[in-house]
Specification:
The chain has three helices and ten strands. By secondary structure, it is an alpha+beta fold. The protein has two domains: about 45 residues; about 150 residues, Calycin beta-barrel core domain (Lipocalin). It has a ten-stranded antiparallel beta barrel with strand order 1-2-3-4-5-6-7-8-9-10. Strand 3 and strand 4 form a beta hairpin. The protein is elongated, with a radius of gyration of 22 Å.
Length: about 200
């Protein structure tokens, strides 16, 4: 936030230095107008809106069941866990705290998701105890299908950086799903993870 305010201050100072041919009264009026316009833009950027209302569907305590396919044709690994999702930073972002199991071991994960008013995109990051890297993605929401689709990258220790697609489907107020796809070496899109969430009673 301090950085944003500093950039705003520098922007306004730059505008004030650029006004040299007007009278003092005109300069003052121009400056006030520019400051008001700049402040309005920053206010719109910082204020949660319709994009954030979509995210409200995710708030709550959830139980999940997960299937993960390590290779085509192999039976999936199955696990269960809990996901606590809550607002942070004045309902600008959601924080996800996950606890469960993976490959027979305790598993913990943490994610942040928000909506960037300037880019008109959903933005997210994810990290967990299965690695030391972070996944990042951007996406959009389709109201007609109640589906959020994101694309992003993650690091695979064996093959390097990988791209993925994540699809969240809001089934109803007490259920949603998340499917993750990656591209096979042949370029075919393959489902590698399926998570079904149900709201805790």
């Amino acid at each position: 936030m301090k950085k944003s305010l500093l950039l705003l201050f520098m922007f306004i100072m730059g505008l004030s230095l650029g006004i040299s041919t007007s009278s003092n009264a005109d300069q003052k009026a121009d400056m006030e107008k520019m400051k008001a316009e700049a402040m309005a833009k920053w206010q719109a950027y910082a204020t949660p809106g319709e994009g954030h209302e979509v995210l409200a569907q995710l708030v709550g305590d959830w139980d999940y069941t997960l299937k993960y396919w390590s290779s085509a044709g192999a039976p999936p690994e199955e696990s269960t866990g809990e996901n606590e999702i809550e607002w942070i930073l004045g309902k600008r972002f959601l924080e996800m705290d996950v606890e469960g199991t993976s490959m027979g071991q305790p598993f913990k994960g943490m994610g942040i998701i928000g909506y960037d008013n300037a880019k008109k995109q959903y933005i997210s990051t994810w990290m967990d105890t299965m690695g030391t890297g972070m996944m990042s993605a951007t996406g959009t929401y389709d109201a007609s299908s109640k589906t959020m689709t994101e694309t992003g990258t993650f690091n695979d220790p064996m093959s390097g950086e990988q791209t993925f697609k994540g699809v969240t489907h809001f089934v109803d107020k007490d259920n949603f799903t998340y499917n993750m796809y990656i591209n096979s070496p042949s370029g075919e899109e393959v489902l590698v993870m399926e998570i079904k969430y149900s709201r805790e009673k």
